[in-house]
């Protein structure tokens, strides 16, 4: 009896280690199969996606680094014809310091980089296009429509999402997808020809009195691909009360998220949990005028802060080094109206293969 009791505390760690070993082995076996299936079908089997997330967590990011280096060898960077655009003229190596800051800090902010006219046109689009009403609170409210026009005076939900298919037809979105300065930074950061990936635009409102986990208002890391860069564009002025985007500086780096958080997998973290591990000076919230662009590696911890005042409208583009990972609903460009995108589709159609 005594001998049994003495063994019990040992058994816990042994079983845990055994479980980790089994999951490691399973992931290492499932992943190559998943990559093969992805090549055949352009869809990622769920088990293979879970294996990717697991391997990221147990290796504290090293697995993604190795996979990304291998991918970069297969798809070299493009010779871009223009490196000019919303971030300025990035010719002659001018992107290097930006990429260095992305590697070091995980983000770079360009205040007011998108011209006011483009912000106006996108706001106009948001005001006349029905968006998905996402109450997030799981209440069965049959009176709330699935899609509605956003009304700032009377929001029906904490979040409204625009359909990527609608966004893809907008001339300014098309121009941003083909923007020479964005493509330059993205491909230097990824180290390979980029792939246009998740495209979204959403309102965050003060509909809820508390932050909402499903609306990405708690800290979390993304893990949809091996490597990616997100481009957030504020389309409203954002101050502390409008749900500024928040990021933990440096948390995108390999090994920067502590083991005990990664062991919990893909979870939402409270501000207190984040404060336990990172100095306050590294927990940043970006108040900035409309048109501001934030480039960010959201492998690091980030969130949209809770909105207590006027709603925030944000546009998000993403470029990744593979589309293996989360399967997003397919969306297609209806008509190419931006000359910039027309030119890029001609030069490098593979960048846009998920949309074209
Ligand atoms: O709304 C925000 O600022 C956060 C967005 C976010 O968490 C994400 O895109 O993963």
Tags for this model:
356 residues; alpha+beta; Jelly Rolls; 2 domains; 8-stranded antiparallel sheet; 3-stranded antiparallel sheet; 37% helix; binds 2-oxoglutaric acid
Overview of this protein structure:
The protein has 356 residues and is an alpha+beta fold. The chain contains eleven helices and 13 strands. The protein has helices at residues 2-41, 46-59, 62-74, 96-105, 116-128, 164-168, 171-177, 180-190, 259-262, 271-277, 339-347; strands spanning 84-85, 88-89, 107-110, 131-134, 147-148, 159-161, 195-204, 228-234, 245-248, 283-286, 293-296, 302-304, 312-320. The strands form three sheets. An eight-stranded antiparallel sheet has the order 3-11-8-13-7-6-4-5. The chain has a three-stranded antiparallel sheet with strand order 10-9-12, with no helix packed on it. A hairpin with a 2-residue loop joins strand 1 and strand 2. Helix 1 (2-41) packs across helix 2 (46-59) and helix 4 crosses helix 8. The relative contact order is 0.18. The site of 2-oxoglutaric acid has 10 residues, from strand 12 and strand 13.
